[in-house]
Amino acid sequence: MLLALQSLWVPPRGVCTPLLDALPEAAARLRVDDEGGQFMTQFAENRQALSRPLRGLGPRAHAEGGGLGHLRPECGDVEHDEKDSISAYAATGCGYSMGIGIGSCGRALALALLCCFGSGCEKAEGPATPKPEIVSTKSGIEMVAIPGGWFEMGSRTGQADERPPHKVWVDAFLIDRYEVTQEQYKKLVLADPAHFKGDRLPVEMVNWGDAALYCNARSRAEGFSPCYDPETAQCDFSADGYRLPTEAEWEYACRAGTRSDYPFGNDPRLLADHAWFANNSGNRTHPVGTKAPNPWGLFDMLGNVAEWCNDIYDKGYYAVSPERNPTGPAEGKLYVLRGGAWNSKADACRSAGRMGEAPGMQDACFARDAIGFRCVRRLKSGGGECALSRERAPLPHPTPGPEGTKGRPAPKTGLVYGDVYLQHNTGPGHPDRPERLTAMVDRLKQKGLLEQMLAIKPAPAAIEWVTTIHSQQYVERLKKGCEEGVPFMDTRDSPVCKATFEVALNAVGGILAAADAVMEGKIRNAFCAVRPPGHHALRDQAMGFCYFNNVAIAARYLQEKHKLAKVLIVDWDVHHGNGTQAAFDGDPTVFYFSVHQHPFYPRTGLATDRGVGKAVGTKLNVPLPAGSGDAEYKKAFEEQLRPAALAFKPDFVLISCGFDAHEGDLLGRMKVTTPCYAELTRIVKGIAEKCCGGRLVSVFEGGYNLDNLASAAEAHVRALME
Ligand SMILES: [Zn+2]
Prior knowledge:
- By secondary structure, the chain is α/β, with parallel strands linked by helices.
- About 25% of the residues lie in helices and about 10% in strands.
- It is built from 16 helices and 20 strands.
- The protein has helices spanning about 35-50, 105-120, 180-190, 210-220, 245-255, 270-275, 385-390, 435-445, 465, 470-485, 500-520, 550-560, 580-585, 630-650, 675-690, 705-720, and strands at about 65, 135, 140-145, 150-155, 165-170, 175, 240-245, 305-310, 335-340, 355, 370, 375-380, 415, 455, 525-530, 565-570, 590-595, 620-625, 650-655, 695-700.
- Strands 14-13-15-20-19-16-17-18 form an eight-stranded parallel sheet, sandwiched between helices.
- Helix 13 (about 580-585) links the parallel strand 16 (about 565-570) and strand 17 (about 590-595).
- Zinc ion binds near residues 573 and 702.
């Protein structure tokens, strides 16, 4: 009866700026999916495709280039000409000096370069400019704002692929101060692929495609347009989101105004102060930022893990490279790796050192656990050299409002809904009727909110996820009961029909799909308009209109599928979620907060119920007397939930979102108003933003007055979309 929901997620259009004339055709396809489910599948497939070798890459490709370290024994057929001694290669000649000078631009810059040649200057070492500004992004990642400027790329004395040295202009950009850590990677993408585990260690075992997808996820999480087309892997340099650095950007940032072999000079004996490499690493990675930074404040540009660049690798590219913003050759089998790694010799850690590596992990020759990356983002300067060389780079101010940068709204909030949820028939007079959902979804449609949300279509969850919370026997008993037409399951208030089992599986499946979409960065958060509800369901028992414990299963799913450590469940349904608390009562990795009417059904949830064993303190119950309203709820959220949640530091937040504490509910006796639901939403959202990049999925539970449901759901969704 309802609604063709439309996904409005649109990949960035492939538009090149005139400056980037060397850019290969960046033709990203405009795509609007009709079905949320179809979109999900498509994304998953694309992700797989990006893990495979790109652009016709054959099944076996090899590392090439300047010998950035030890190659795996199976790659012994690769040419690998290393220099005998690095100390023999002191920098000579003048070349081009840095042209970043504050206040210089255009002619002044050209003049400065001319003066340098005219006077026969010998060196341009050491920081040429004041230290660029360090900024913090919306998700709390430190970046350095690099002003645009000229530099000499390559080396006269290095490997063949570093020649000829040539002058290059690079527009202003932001670059990560550190290599992407496992903690950052896990928060946005999927499981942590790293071999050497540790939150502060750089992520490794990352193929080029996964690095690009991380960039896209981070862009979406901060309200920017993703740069990579998930189908073609083409980078849209005009998009304002994150991407891998071009090779020129990487070397420019690494050199930091220097022309010597290393940013600290030419003496490789000093490398140990600046890098984790073969001589000092103990054959493993180390926490980022534990060696000295380069003159611009960037850490681990040398060593630790080698870093993917956006460019395709070609040995002879420097001979034909354009002068301004080079983006690498259009075709090739290998991608550029820069910066040396924990297993590299000193020579490979030089600023100019290059290496080509197959983008797919299965073809990597360079040790896979020695490959990571860092991100860049363009600064909105218009691209001219004046714009940012004249003044300090501005602080970036992400603007994640409903208006996207290209006139299309960025995907922010998902909606799980499907007509299948109407098929759970509880019989006449039962409070849990299908109209509860249609009242909410119709309102979202009337108010124009629906079209701004990403539609997520439900599919039945796999039983293996349901049995993370419920026993196999119970699942089978419920299935059989529905098939055989029993009138109810366990208690009279939990009636079943033939479809109930399948509908309940779809409720779980829709929520898990929303969790996936958030984890993949397609949406920031989601509201799941599902039936039947879940928070009373116990391991072996249906209870209080609930059959499968939706949020509890979602929490376990996030932990097992997405490898998240800690989940926060906020339950503002008027009833205590006894099933949820029971599922995690002894588990310190799931924090359960409930504010509820007390005494009331199901009579659990005393303030003294704080968890058991190691989990004591991770369950927080705030029982309130009938008649409590906005003031009591806000106080509980601000004074009890917020400090406890911030101390717990969840990796994901789930809401058991009942609207039955609303004044005028048919079951609850509380007096919460519609505007208060928006405020509670903002508090919980604020916790998610502070702790886990805003990752939040809200799951509908109770609420039995149709008018209340419509208005409270609207307020809740509007706050989620803010
Ligand atoms: Zn309830």
